[in-house]
Design brief:
Low-confidence stretches: 1-5, 54-59, 306-311, 313-326
Number of helices: 14
Structural class: alpha/beta
Number of strands: 11
Strand order of the largest sheet: 1-2-6-5-4-3-7-8-9
Shape: elongated
Number of domains: 3
Distance between the termini: 57 Å
CATH topology of the largest domain: Rossmann fold
Amino acid sequence: MSALISENKEELLLAQAFLLAANKCRISLRDRRKLITNARNLQNLIQMRQAETEEGSQTSLREDLFINFQISYRENFKQLQSENKKYPADLTVILCNDQAFPQRLKEIDSCPSLLFGQGGNWEILNSSSLVAVVGSRTPSHYGMEVTRCLTRDLVDAEAVVVSGGAVGIDTLAHRHSLAAEGRTCAVLGSGLNRPYPHSNKNLFSEISSKGGLVISEFLLDEPPKKQNFPQRNRLIAALVDALIVTEAGEKSGTLITADFAADYGREVFAVPGSVFSGRSRSCHQLIKEGASLLQSASDLEFILKRKPDPALSTEENTAGGASSKTSLSTEEKIVLECLCIAPSSLTELSRRSQLPVEQLALLLAHLQKDGFVDRARGLYTACAPAYSF
């Protein structure tokens, strides 16, 4: 076991030394991939001569640039060895010429030369169905419900759920995947030794320990930087067959991910929201620009292995409770219509529905029991079945 950890650590040090040297010498991603492919592994590259790297190559570095790169590579490796940092045993690295390297990534010009991973489950990134679920960092209850239901349906269809590990929709997508015993991948905008957000450190560990994977193309100790996240977004878009935006306000960063996905020929889906709320403006903008409107998981039929049930929420539409649409009274339907627009306090809901507080409290109790309504932070909110009553 100790030999395996030692071998992993050497690979991690070599990979970081390679990136540091390539960054210093401003070597393009294409030339980085070519260097690794010709050398076959990072250890060989430290000792190879320029002539050997050019053999059969369609691109090569200038001799002076290659010499400077190799000097820097060796110096960085020695420096990293002398620092003797300790890394978690589950950190791994995969090179672009490895058979297990994500094949979808190889389709893009900006494919990274290597990736760091927490966990060794690289095979999931070559699964038959990968779908990204992204959205707002501050989702509404509606956005949370949509994300929960869609994620569960994706797991039921044996799709790998990919997201960015951020707070909000990303975190929900990962957590609901794990709760449904599915596989999920988090793509970070920082180094794996400095995971961002730090509040999700335990979530990332849980992902890697339960058959998922946390990946990054950045140095292990790279802090989260503003310019890192568009790079992270391109990886999310390239890794998947389809991208779903469940809820995103105006000028959301998810638009960058959607642009990358469209450029790479991935299918882009957007979930519509209320026109009275600004929380879905980016979703509506995407739909205007040609994204597919996603009303239910069945809209993903051609991407997934099997056709999910034709509603976002399958559990709630089973026998009993929320499935009985016709059993709702006129007053209950009025209450649900109000809550589908926005969560409300009891007083505000009474004003909107024009129902007395005493009657409303009784109606809400019945609707909560039947799974149509929930209460969070003092506000009554509509659950998934309420949007299709």
